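User: For my dataset I need records formatted as: sequence, then structure tokens, nothing else. Please produce one.
Assistant:
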Amino acid sequence: MSDPVSVTSAAETLNWDFWNYFANPYFWSGFMGWCVAQTIKMTRGAIRTKSLDFTYLMSTGGMPSAHSSLVVGVFVSLGLGQGWVHPVTIIASVVATITMFDAATVRRAAGLQARLLNKMTRQLFREHRFSARPLKEMLGHTRTEVLGGMLTGTLVAIVVMLLWKAMDWKNF
């Protein structure tokens, strides 16, 4: 039985051509996962507000989580391309888990605290004449938003990997 872990050659390891970074499905799965998630947010915002707001493309928070979509896209594409027990795939799964946990807990709590501080600040400044810039409240995600990002990243990774294989780019 052969070892499922493939070893890269020295030539592959030492190939530092900048453009090779973009010539693999793992990069594109993560990048496209992020793009699709941000586009979904922008579309949902446009439907809700009846106006197109391009700031959604660089926003944090909201449905689906673009961070979750990006890291899960990389993880799933690595699993499909390199194998689920490959060390890099395992590392990607750990990074994805930490990212999603952080988005749904730490960053979410920071956003809720910002909302409370903004409320306190508004009340304080109504009574006293101070000026303040409100804190950003959309920092983290609900578990549903993280799950939405996870599903988005998974679907995008599967599509990217199928297209990559169908087009036989770089014989991944």
